[in-house]
What does this fold into?
Amino acid sequence: MRYFILLAIVASISVGQSIVQAEDKQTLNDREKKLIDEYIDKRLKEQHTNTNNTKLSLNNIPGQFNFSGFILSEWEDSDNLGSDGSRINTTAFDSSDKTDRITEGNTFGNLGLDWTLDSTTAHLVLEFGEYAAGLTNSSGQLGADTTDIEVKNFYIDHDFGNGWEISAGIQGIVADPLGFIMDDDQTAFTTTYTINEQHKLWAYVAETHTGTSRRQTDDQSFFGINAEVARENTTWTPFWIHLKDRSTSNQDKVIDFYGFHTLWKHGDWEIESEYIYNSGRTLETGNGSNKSTSLRGQLADIKIKRNIEDSFLSSLSAEWIHTSGGRGKTASGTSNGSQHHFQSQDPQVGYRLNIADSDGSDLAPGTSRLAPINLALAEGINTIIVEAQWQASTKLSGYIRQAWLRTDVSNPITGTGVKNIGRESDAGLQYLLNDYLKFKMDYGYLKTGAYFSPHSDAHLFTSALLLEF
It folds into this structure.
């Protein structure tokens, strides 16, 4: 009997110990869960603190991320603007062509990602559009999942910390300070050396292909050096650019550009100027021909601006742009083996006016098209632009602009002595809906001159919503 009693006592002790251990284990599990929950809450709060609309820190990936971009949704009404060869097949400045009246909506945007690791940053910019609803060759076909995304920029830059910086990849290159020669995306290697606050050197090698192959018969290669010297009120930038161009079949073009840019600021006044002289040669290599044409041209630009504080008018400016014209009897400007017009490699990008020198790309008003005039016009250009910018409040601002345009030499097709391109009147406004979204309206009216044939007047009106982040 005593043995049974003893066994009962031992069993009860064992059960009691098991219950205590189970209770301790349950308590331990609760503590672990509580600690885990507290850790998760803490990390989520850190994530929220380090995150805003433009910057995101990912805990499981080293470095820092920065997102930026824009979305532009635009509506256009235009008349007599002409053809870009694919999307708008109409005759420029011809009011008898009833199909020249365009009403269209389009969407355009890009998304940029920067990934920084110590002194190195990788950049990726994807571009979307322009998309026009229902237009199949703009990927706007309704009811179809068409893909139309461009890798606009994809490059790496590194700061050595001693004044030297390098970058390599597909990136935007502004060949001269005002972008008259080239302002576009290129596959490039660039290096910048900042000697001190007053002296800086910048050099680059860039190349682009105009066809679908990687052969040397369809490429453009640039090599350039810019030197910046800054003093109290003035910055001087001399530059030299060497171009080899094989983008035209059976033709080799070699050009050197020599230029000088100046920016002077004093109080409310700014004076900016740039002069470029190009010298080179084109060699015809097809069909056994070795015809050579010398290339001599120049560009001059000067802009005077006054900034106005505590006034409805925020600034007033006047600008004169001149490019030399060909002295020959043909529209190409070729005479006796020489060309005298300026040899811009990115002539469509003027963007000083809404119609005359704009191709409607990027954030310029309107859809993509050919600009009526450009910096490489064979007859050259002489343009005067007067502009006033106004600011009614912190949210509402705008501009009015008037331009007079003539060629440097007469158009050999429309008749001797005809230089009048026309005059253009522009106006626009923008209203900030919040820190990221703005509403824009732009208008342009080009009163065409006898340089064009036909020369009906053209107008452009656009309204748009622009989201920038």
Confidence is low (pLDDT under 50) at residues 1-28, 50-57, 84-90, 328-336.
